[in-house]
Design brief:
Length: 528
């Protein structure tokens, strides 16, 4: 029987993705870490050596689970070297074994910001107010030779860098520290005023700065901060480099947790550019809400910017009948999905036919393969990729879970930090070079009448082919107010309706999506 997936991905995106495990004995167990690359050698810093954190404050984020070593992985030689952080100053040791640091590799230097973990100095769990720079080639050589790390690591205390779970990007010469939080104390799901209390403050901001680094001294300069509690109250999300339709470079901050007024993930996205940031109207990311391995792919010939997400955790997923279902517990998933921005700025989401080989990807990292056509920003240039199947990178680390929902039963045995390595293979399709992609209005046509509406929305849809579809009512803030599934028929104008349950008076967007496209029409609601 046919399985209705949200999109027929390969024909529309211009490439196929395959994930396959490759043998590699002795890989360290690590998740939510930082990685720097030097040829085929990878430097792994920080993160945790255990799985999903437990709920009980006394058992959560234990120091024993810190990744208290630096690791060098030589992919080509299939060798691993590991050393203690003990040759570094205490404050630097403590930061470099923290989890969810923000990081960025600039040439041969890995910059690390913040991170959360137990500090013996503070006798508590803290978010480290520190910027650290690691000379990757020197550090790799020192680890392999067993010599001191100190000559290759520089660090400076700076309370403005006390952020964990955010993202660090570079536009021009300006670093952008986006989102994240300051957390002090032990994790407690009952809240800050129960048991061992804690301090939790979302940054709700984009922090812009330059790093003054002459190879000896290190400092943060030209610091500015733009606050936006409505859109930037998010953490533990993915942020990917983007080439926008006008050719400019920036980033898109995807999904993340948690919304300010409810403990549910964000669905909308925010673009970050040199001139500022802006929430993307009319698009919700349904299939990936948490930090995972990811890859940015640009197809200049077709005018498409792709963001690929490998596994992780998601509030939404497709069941075996092809229906989009929701789980507010935000379970682990094996979905591989793609968000595509076309040359007119339209964003759509695709689910790929292949899945991850397990509940993998959360807290994992994608590491680019050498010799592939990556732009300096880390974006894969699809048009420069050779024909045939190409290994464009690897996925390593992250949490591997034994079940979708383990949080409420987690005693530390239901998940672990993965020691498996996966190749990511991309095969470019010849359809990549088309001048213009198919438009949604070529496939779907939507008409709402009456408009304004009261009590229910009545509308007709013309579909080019039968499919399982979804209807969304979206507020002016870009968030979905309500949704429902429909089965679209290729029978001309198909009448449909959506009851307006507790929908306030105001202006909205009605969106109808089939298995590949979405169309919108503005609607006004007069009330019940």
């Amino acid at each position: 029987m046919a399985l209705w997936l949200p999109f027929v991905a390969a024909a529309q995106q211009g490439f196929q993705v395959t994930v396959q495990e490759v043998p590699f004995d002795g890989l360290p167990s690590v998740q939510s870490f930082a990685v720097g690359t030097h040829g085929d050698r990878w430097l792994l810093v920080g993160g945790r050596a255990d799985g999903l954190h437990q709920r009980q404050p006394f058992a959560s984020f234990l120091a024993a689970g810190n990744n208290a070593q630096l690791h060098v992985v030589d992919r080509a030689a299939e060798q691993v070297w590991s050393v203690s952080l003990s040759t570094l100053p205490t404050a630097v040791q403590e930061q470099l074994q923290s989890t969810n640091m923000e990081w960025y590799q600039l040439d041969t230097v890995l910059y690390l910001v913040g991170g959360y973990g137990y500090s013996a100095t503070a006798a508590d769990h803290i978010t480290h107010g520190r910027l650290t720079a690691i000379n990757i080639p020197g550090c790799v050589s020192a680890i392999q030779a067993g010599t001191s790390l100190a000559p290759h690591v520089r660090s400076v205390a700076d309370t403005r860098m006390a952020v964990t779970g955010g993202n660090l990007g570079l536009i021009g010469s300006t670093f952008h520290l986006v989102g994240g939080q300051y957390f002090e104390g032990r994790y407690n799901p009952m809240g800050p005023d129960h048991g061992p209390g804690f301090v939790q403050e979302y940054t709700e901001a984009v922090r812009r700065f330059a790093i003054n680094d002459n190879g000896t001294t290190l400092s943060v300069v030209s610091y500015t901060e733009t606050s936006d509690p409505a859109e930037l109250h998010r953490r533990d999300n993915n942020m990917l480099p983007q080439i926008f339709p006008d050719g400019s470079f920036g980033y898109t901050a995807f999904s993340g947790v948690f919304q300010p007024t409810v403990d549910l993930p964000w669905l909308n996205t925010v673009n970050i550019s040199a001139s500022g940031h802006q929430a993307v109207a009319g698009f919700n990311q349904m299939l990936s809400q948490y930090h995972s391995a990811k890859l940015a792919v640009h197809d200049a010939a077709a005018g498409r910017m792709h963001s690929v997400f490998f596994g992780g955790m998601s509030r939404y997923r497709y069941n075996t009948q092809g229906n989009l279902i929701t789980d507010d517990a935000v379970p682990f998933v094996n979905t591989i999905s793609v968000v595509t921005r076309t040359d007119d700025g339209t964003m759509t989401e695709l689910q790929l036919p292949q899945t991850m080989p397990g509940l993998l990807g959360a807290g994992a990292e994608f590491i680019p393969a050498t010799g592939m056509p990556y732009l300096p920003s880390g974006i894969l240039d699809l048009n420069a990729l050779p024909t045939g199947q190409q290994v464009v990178g690897y996925i390593m680390g992250g949490i591997e879970s034994t079940a979708e929902n383990i949080f409420f039963v987690n005693n530390g045995t239901q998940s672990h930090a993965s020691t498996r390595l996966f190749e990511v293979v991309i095969e470019r399709e010849e359809t990549t070079a088309v001048a213009r992609p198919v438009r949604a209005t070529d496939v779907l046509k939507l008409h709402v009448a009456p408009n304004p509406a009261s009590g229910e929305l009545r509308f007709t849809v013309n579909s080019l082919y039968p499919s399982e579809g979804h209807v969304y009512l979206i507020g002016t803030d870009g968030r979905t107010v309500q949704s429902q599934g429909v089965r679209l028929q290729s029978v001309g104008a198909q009448p449909l309706n959506m009851p307006l349950r507790h929908v306030a008076l105001g202006n909205y967007i009605l969106r109808v999506c089939d298995t590949g496209f979405c169309v919108d029409e503005p609607v006004s609601v007069l009330g019940q």
